[in-house]
Amino acid sequence: MQLVDRLLKGDKRAAAKIISMIEDRDAQAQKIVSLLHHHTGNAHIIGLTGPPGAGKSTLISALVREFRSRGKRVGVIAVDPTSPFTGGALLGDRVRMTDVGVDDGVYIRSMATRGHVGGLALATYDAVKVLEAMGMDKVFVETVGAGQSEVEVANLAHTTVIVEMPGSGDSIQILKAGILEIGDVYTVNKADEGGAESMVTNLKSVLPEDREGWAPPVLTTVASEGKGVPELADRLEEHFSYLKKSGKLGEKERIRSEVELRDALTETMLEKLTTSKGGKKLYEDVLDKVVSRKLDPHTAARRLLSGKTG
Ligand SMILES: Nc1nc2c(ncn2[C@@H]2O[C@H](COP(=O)(O)OP(=O)(O)O)[C@@H](O)[C@H]2O)c(=O)[nH]1
Ligand SMILES: [Mg+2]
User: How far is the CA of 48 from the centre of ligand 2 (A)?
Assistant: First the structure.
């Protein structure tokens, strides 16, 4: 397929086209992504999550520059409707972002995953594959920290970075958000605004000193000035090395693959059910019965699968 060939050569326009097809759930998208799968598996996938406004997008821009200066090819997927990388009023340092935008070794893409079952899930995995297949060494995924998406991004990424900012919450709130289990690297950004040190102390007091041979570091950064960014990049590289040496990379890949397989199963089953003759109506009828309490969801699912819906 011509589009795939172009992508494999690193063509950004091909990447843009394919990711749009994924977003639109174009019938061809699945076939294309299937062709890409065996061209993936070499990139370091890094997820960044944290509250809106913490500086995730700014930090990613700074990391892109840092890794470019280290000779890495870098891709970015932003699953964040509130601060897209392109269009509208976005990034603080628009000009410098445009600089990396014309660089062949950088591809940045914002994505809307609305309407996809599971939100972040399958469409993002597919988009990451596109960036891997086009030859990116580092693929950053930005998600806004809102409940479930943190855990989802931790499953998607090899390395999960939790971005906090001073005053964004005391340790109890941090505990509640469930971010203590999933972060591999923590950074308190906006360290220029004061209060960062107490945030760091708070975080350190509640984080484990050792998690299966890895001690999650807590850093401070000023993303808008690039301060602390080389150190952050170093920690990311260290974590990737740790994953490789400890055999954890294989475990992570298995979890990633399982999430993908499960999501694909759900999607395939739903597609099969709703595109078969009379399937859509049957599905809606069963859904109505669940709503009116005539049927429970478990029984409904089993009946739909077995085809006995009477
Ligand atoms: N003072 C200060 N502002 C920052 C820093 N990092 C980002 N910002 C600003 O904070 C705002 C939100 O940043 P953004 O990257 O969009 O946050 P996101 O919502 O987490 O992606 C923007 O106006 C940035 O310019 C920082 O380290 N210090
Ligand atoms: Mg953002």
Answer: 10
